[in-house]
Structure formats: structure tokens, C-alpha cells
Amino acid sequence: MHNAREELLASLRTLNLGAMAAAVEDTALRAAKEGLTHEAFLLELARIERAAKAARRIERLSRQSELLPEKTFRTLNLDRFDPATRMQIERLRSGSFLKDAINVVAVGRPGAGKSHLASALGHALVEQGYPVLFTPTGALVQQLLAAKRDLRLPQELAKLDRFECLVLDDIGYVQHDRDEMEVLFTLLAERYERKSIVITTNLVFSEWERIFKDPMTTLAAIDRVVHHSVVLDLMGVESYRAKAAGAKPTVSAAVTA
């Protein structure tokens, strides 16, 4: 009996069923105590292994995501947003927008919580098993530009294609030159109607020419982003940094297309 059990444990580990191997002893005792059938015993072990694999996958996706670890829905004060925005956020948390390659654009003044919200949404998606990448837009643009210079831009875009959701933080924060604008536009065009992008920006759409320089390119970029999208208008949200400092920030006009 001892040899058979040792062989069973060794076989389970060889088959990469480590969670089952670790649970055999306790599950066998419970099976004997509760009079479980062989099928129920195996089903319980299978459930344990499946749960362990799901947990390991989420842990791996979390590491790969580069999401801000402390910026989750648990630390986000949703009461800062108006009721309509909170309803939009609740719908987005389900992750259903990814199936239709819908984009999300969070537009707001500095300190409105755009990055925190985008990161929290990313964490919620990862917890559901979706591959997500969070990146400052400026850093990703430089990465793509270097790939273009090395004639490996298609390979770099293919790597990004593995992510069901790409979070581009602060798309309007760094002003891009023409080469940088071109690779950013290429990325948006590549994912258009295929994979979702979450964008945070302090620029309303009428100011996006500051990013893409050329009016026609700007219109084309906005068209690809907004065609299938949810726009979260946070322009009226008070800056938490200003609030903490006791200041009263002015509220800009609503998002204009």
C-alpha cells in the first residue's frame, strides 16, 4: 500500500498535478470518513487541481500585466464619480467589452483618478483570467520606435497582440514627434476592431492634434479609438491632490468630439 501511494504521488507530480498530489492524503481521509465514492474522490481532487491552476494563471497574468499593485477597486473611491460614470464602470468590470473589442477612454484633468481607475479595471480583468498590459504611453511609443528602427516592428506588435486589453496611460502627457506619432497610430490601427485598448488622457478629443500633429491623422486615430468605445468623462471630477491640499480646482468644459 505504501509503495502504491508513493508511486501515485510520484506519477501525479510527473504529470504536473502537484495540487492533486498535495491534497491526496487529506482528501483520502475525508473520503473514507464521509464514504465518498471513487468518482467523488477523483472529482474533488480534480477540482483542487483546477483551482490551483487557475490561481497560478492569475498570478502569472498579474506579474506580466505591470499594473500598479496598489491601484485596485478596493482602494478606489468610486463616490468621487457621478452616478452615470459609476454605472459605466460597473458594466466594464464584467469584462464583456473585451469580446467586442470595445475601447475605453478616460478623459479628465490631472488628479481625477484616471490612472487609478484604468489600473483597477485591469486588475479586475486579470482576476477573470484576461491577459492585460498596463504601460505609460510614452514608454511604449519608445519601445515601438526602437523596434521600427531595428526592422522588427511587426514582431513587437505581435507580442502586444497577446494581451486582450492594452492600457495606455497618459496618452497626451508626452508630446510626440512625427516618427513617434506614426508608431502610435500603427498600434491603434493594428488593434482596431480586434483587441481592446484602455486610454487615459487629460486632453479632450479636440486637442488630440497635439498628439498626432497632422489633422487627417488625428481624425483617423480618433475614429479608430471612438468607433467602438466607452468614453468616461471625468473632466468634472475634483483632483484628489488638490482636495488634499485644500485647493478648489476649476472645472473645464465637458469632453468635446
From TrEMBL:
Organism from which the protein derives: Paraburkholderia caribensis
NCBIfam families in alphabetical order: IS21_help_AAA
A UniProt-annotated Pfam family: IstB_IS21
Keywords assigned: ATP-binding, Nucleotide-binding
Domain AAA+ ATPase: 100-232
Protein name: IS21-like element helper ATPase IstB
Similarity comment: family membership: Belongs to the IS21/IS1162 putative ATP-binding protein family.
SUPFAM superfamilies: P-loop containing nucleoside triphosphate hydrolases
Xref: InterPro entries: AAA+_ATPase, DNAC/IstB-like, IstB, IstB_ATP-bd, P-loop_NTPase
CDD domains: AAA
